[in-house]
Specification:
Strand order of the largest sheet: 2-1-3-4
Largest sheet: 4 strands, parallel
Oligomer: single chain
Structural class: alpha/beta
Shape: globular
Helix content: 40-55%
Order of helices and strands: EHHEHHEHHEHEHHEHHEHEH
Strand content: 5-15%
Number of strands: 8
Amino acid sequence: MTVGLFIPCYVDQFYPGAAIATLQLLEKLGCNVVYPKNQTCCGQPMANSGFEHLTGGCNELFIKNFAEFDYIVAPSGSCVLHIKDHIHDDNQPEKAAHVSNRIYELTSFLTDILKVTSLPAKFPHKVGVHQSCHGQRGLHLSQMTELVAPYYSKPGSLLNMVEGIEIIDLNRTDECCGFGGTFCVAEEAVSVKMGKDRVADHLNHGAEYITGVDMSCLMHMEGILNRQGSKVKVLHIAEILNGSPLTP
């Protein structure tokens, strides 16, 4: 199969290690991966700020870049959810529908499409897993604790395949970190307080690393950790699953 690799703009600019690990991991698992070089922002920041009517150019470019691939994979739940729910083009609705139906967040693609059962990765550290809201509640990557339903976690099932890793228990397994895209700008004080609470839960349980499927949430918590002088690091889940040389 041929996979179109979609790398969100902030990952491209600030966390290229997550992008490289995603590419390497998909190739290790037998995918033919293509990275369209003309890709840009998917338009989520505009849509989240109430300007979805201005994202037509983003939609057209995204469809142009990705409509011909068997699947589209990205290391970001929030960007994937935006494309799944909002991409449209009245001039080419069939291609827009193909993109919407074929785009996957990385861990969902690994579990649901590739059906990965083992990974040659090693990470001997205590790791806290952050369940990002878009991934959990929008893409259903893991079960919500307020539901009386069987528990599952696609990121968690993959992490449990990594040799030596210790996944720590948290008091509140699916609490929001407070990032929320433009929310962290419009409601800075509330966002910071939520982030401090989320970080504290990981620190109180001895995490050496905090991982997750969205680098945006991890970036928010990384800023708080750095300001607190903490030695705890954030790391995108792709870097752990890949056993990447970029990881310490």
